[in-house]
Amino acid sequence: MSDEHNKTPNSGQEEQPREPYTPASPLKRIWAWVGVVYMVIIVFLMTYMYGTGSYLHGIAALMLIPALGGGAASAVCLWVTAPQEGRTPARRAMMILITALCLALIIVNLINGIPALLANFGG
């Protein structure tokens, strides 16, 4: 009695060696998480639209926040992962400037975006 349904398709052949697993770089991970945040936001926006029959207006400032957070995280990541000889004072100043600018813009967009979001709900 043979077990023909349990045979693998490449039985009798040598297996091909697989390439070793290499994880994604930290920058790719940062921007992948930014993409995940945007997808969650889009799902919430579409669910709201289907549930109420109207769109949320004036939320462009809030939609910029994940990208600004990704930009700040990328600047810090590039500084941290740089080799020791690549960490010059000029690069450090640029990292601090870019991160501070992104964080300041996040605060400004929160100040502008939250009242606009609440105005959609009658607040």
Structure characterization notes:
This protein has 123 residues and is mainly alpha-helical. The protein has one domain (26-119). It is built from four helices and no strands. It is flat.
Observed structural traits:
flat, single chain, mainly alpha, 4 helices
Q: What's the gist of this structure?
A:
With 123 residues, the protein is mainly α. 63% of the residues lie in helices and 0% in strands. It has one domain.
Describe how the helices and strands are arranged:
Elements (H helix, E strand, L loop, with lengths): L25 H27 L7 H4 L1 H16 L8 H31 L4
Helix pairs in contact: 1-3, 3-4
Unreliable stretches (pLDDT < 50, length at least 5) are none
The count of helical stretches stands at 4
Rough outline: flat
Give the SSE string. Answer: HHHH
Please state the CA-atom Rg, rounded to the nearest Å.
24 Å
Total strands: 0
Helix content range of the residues, please? 55-70%
User: In terms of structural class, how would the helical and strand content be classed?
Assistant: mainly alpha
Strand content: under 5%
Biggest β-sheet description: none
The overall pLDDT average reads: 89
Q: How far do the termini sit from each other? A: 75 Å
Count of separate structural domains? 1
